[in-house]
Design brief:
The structure is a single chain. This protein is about 40% helix and about 15% strand. By secondary structure, it is of the alpha/beta class. It has a single domain, classed as TIM Barrel (Alpha-Beta Barrel). Strands 1-2-3-4-5-6-7-8 form an 8-stranded parallel β-barrel, surrounded by 8 helices. Helix 2 crosses helix 4, helix 4 runs parallel beside helix 5 and helix 8 runs parallel beside helix 9. It is globular, with a radius of gyration of 17 Å. The relative contact order is 0.14. The mean pLDDT is about 95. The structure holds 3-methyl-2-oxobutanoic acid and sodium ion. The site of sodium ion (NA) has 5 residues, from loops. Pathway: Cofactor biosynthesis; (R)-pantothenate biosynthesis; (R)-pantoate from 3-methyl-2-oxobutanoate: step 1/2. One of its GO terms (cellular component) is cytoplasm. It catalyses: (6R)-5,10-methylene-5,6,7,8-tetrahydrofolate + 3-methyl-2-oxobutanoate + H2O = 2-dehydropantoate + (6S)-5,6,7,8-tetrahydrofolate.
Length: about 260
């Protein structure tokens, strides 16, 4: 497989081929995951929770993401590497450019930021200066204290329409990929249909252009609370590579996520 680019992901959407994305934070897993067929690797600020043991993503720094991006980039040859912009690292377009520069120099091909149309100018500035942007709407974990918990978003019609408007505004501003987290399946299906860029879901039902999972969830490396939208692919596969091959195949065939992993 040749290098995966944003153009390639868009062509996959047009061809109806599903995109498989997963988080990774080091070279070992990055290499295994892309050998298993994932198209994109996300250095998520979920690392604050799964690696650092924090209760939220808020303490993660640009340097934390840069360190893990370098580790992933060193293990990766072809996947599209997306690095999360941490909490309060993109409050202004200027700050966003400085943060993104650090992450791109660490090996990212694209940065991801959480939020709506108030980021339009930031998305345009980053894109103009050579930084492709992935948006993140729905349940945006950096706003957990505004939401009052990790909850489904976009259940009411008005809120759903608002998420849709934000998605369209950011696409118009230059956003090239969108993650939709924890929204009703129908809303995710509508947004995926109405945008021409690929939409990657997590807890967003089967009718998006692709899926993303936190690697610890996909491998059952969890203790305590396990979100409804995740699946342990290691349980039925026996080794890590086979587990992620199964994840990629089930996404491609539309078998994951099933109704039991989705919100209706
Ligand atoms: O930080 C992360 O891992 C993420 C994914 C859950 C989309 O943002
Ligand atoms: Na994140």
């Amino acid at each position: 497989m040749s290098k995966i680019t944003t153009a390639r992901l868009r062509a996959m959407k047009q061809a109806g081929q599903k995109i498989a994305m997963i988080t990774a934070y080091d070279a070992t897993f990055a290499a295994l995951f892309e050998q298993a067929g994932v198209h994109s690797i996300l250095i998520g600020d979920s690392l604050g929770m799964v690696l650092q043991g924090e209760a939220s993503t808020l303490k993660v720094s640009v340097d934390d993401i840069a360190y893990h991006t370098r580790c992933v980039a060193n293990g990766s040859k072809k996947a599209l590497i997306v690095a999360d912009m941490p909490f309060m690292s993109y409050s202004t377009p200027e700050q966003a450019c400085a943060s993104a520069a650090t992450l791109m120099r660490a090996g990212a091909h694209m940065v991801k930021l959480e939020g709506g149309d108030w980021l339009a100018d930031t998305v345009t500035q980053l894109t103009r200066q050579g930084v492709p942007v992935c948006g993140h709407l729905g349940l945006t974990p950096q706003s957990v204290h505004v939401f009052g918990g990790f909850k489904l978003q976009g259940r009411e019609t008005e809120q759903a329409e608002q998420i849709k408007r934000h998605a369209k505004a950011l696409e118009a501003a230059g956003m090239q990929l969108l993650v939709l987290e924890c929204v009703p399946s129908k809303l995710a299906a509508d947004i995926s249909r109405e945008l021409s860029i690929p939409v990657i879901g997590i807890g967003a039902g089967p009718d998006t252009d692709g899926q993303v999972l936190v690697m610890q969830d996909a491998l059952g490396l969890t203790s305590g609370y396990v979100p409804k939208f995740t699946k342990n692919f290691l349980a039925e596969s026996g080794n890590v590579r086979a587990a992620i091959e199964t994840y990629v195949a089930e996404v491609a065939e539309g078998r994951f996520p099933g109704p039991e992993h989705s919100f209706n």
